[in-house]
Design a protein that fits this description.
Layout (H helix, E strand, L loop, with lengths): L1 E8 L2 E6 L2 E7 L12 E5 L2 E5 L5 E2 L4 E2 L3 E7 L6 H13 L3 E7 L5 H11 L5 E3 L17 E5 L6 H9 L24 E6 L2 E5 L15 H4 L27 H7 L5 H16 L4
Parallel strand pairs: 3-5, 8-9, 8-11, 9-10, 11-13
Antiparallel strand pairs: 1-2, 1-4, 2-3, 4-5, 6-7, 12-13
This protein binds guanosine-5'-triphosphate (GTP), magnesium ion (MG) and zinc ion.
């Protein structure tokens, strides 16, 4: 029978087969080779085979991702470069991205600012787990969807609010160190609606540029707002870094392109240049 791996704990796997959950073990297969999100062939309580994957992430270990919800909040202070890297990562791996601004109860200015910077880059949903706006996220969960983002942005809180149950452990945001404590350690899939799962994750708080594997010229196409007809740069080989009559540079100057996004682009250009390619 074919099942879906919902959870991995040491050498035990929770596998869902036709709405029932079974604790299975891998025999004749390497445990390290089985990921949460994998479709597997099971016989009794034994996983016999891993079916081909759409994609696989190593850190956090997750397979067959359809969608990624990148969660940010006013606190902890967002790392927007990480947001940009995750957006690129999604496009490269055929994962549909969504930017979710959580903790909207902490103030409107922050929300407006983020929308201004990112509305041309990706779809955005604004929620708070403290009120009903969190349910706006429900219709966005398709297939296997992962919550990504820094520690303490509220990923586990979102799962609990959607399921109206305290299934995921919630941490504290430490004001003193201005960051979370990585409360969630394991990856686990929670069924939000039939066939639609949400993964609580840890470990998306960094993303090495090497994983992106794009060159300086390719990077441009991951900033869709640079390509809008009004400020499309007329030079085909322009990297939009400083040239006097570069259309993108002047659109940044007159405020048509977000400065924050452009500065991130420049940092990524620099980082990509410094990666030694083998
Ligand atoms: N004000 C406010 N606080 C929230 C909201 N959602 C979550 N929090 C708080 O944010 C803190 C961190 O929440 P978690 O859900 O543990 O965050 P996480 O992203 O799962 O963190 P890690 O598991 O460490 O990656 C907790 O103190 C929550 O109560 C919200 O909408 N508004
Ligand atoms: Mg968590
Ligand atoms: Zn240019």
């Amino acid at each position: 029978m074919i099942g879906l791996v919902l959870k991995k704990n040491a050498d035990k796997f929770t596998v869902e087969v036709e709405d029932k959950k079974f604790i299975c073990q891998a025999r004749n297969l390497k445990e390290q080779g089985i990921f949460v999100g994998d479709k597997v062939e099971v016989n009794g309580d034994v996983i016999e085979k891993v079916l081909p994957r759409k994609n696989v992430l190593i850190r956090p270990p997750l397979a067959n991702l359809d969608k990624m919800i990148i969660v940010i909040a006013k606190a902890p202070k967002p790392d927007f470069l990480l947001v940009d890297k995750l957006l690129i990562f999604c496009t490269l791996n055929e994962i549909e991205p969504l930017l979710c601004i959580n903790k909207s109860d902490l103030g409107e200015n922050f929300v407006e600012e983020v929308i201004k910077n990112y509305e041309k880059a990706t779809k955005i949903v604004v929620i708070s787990t403290l009120d009903d706006t969190v349910f706006d996220l429900k219709k966005e969960i398709k297939g296997i969807t992962a919550l990504a983002g820094q520690s303490a942005v509220g990923k586990s809180s979102i799962i609990n609010a959607l399921l109206k149950e305290n299934v995921a452990k919630i941490g504290n945001f430490s004001k003193k160190v201005e960051r979370g404590k990585q409360t969630t350690r394991l990856v686990e899939l929670y069924e939000i609606e039939k066939g639609n799962y949400l993964a609580d994750t840890a470990g998306f708080s960094k993303l090495d540029e090497r994983l992106l594997n794009v060159d300086e010229y390719e990077l441009r196409k991951y900033y869709p707002e640079f390509i809008a007809p009004s400020h499309n740069c007329k030079y085909k080989s322009c990297l939009h870094l400083s040239s006097k009559d570069c259309g993108v540079c002047s659109a940044v100057k007159n405020g048509e392109i977000s400065k924050l996004r452009y500065e991130n682009y420049k940092i990524l250009q620099e980082n990509i240049k410094n990666i030694k390619r083998f």
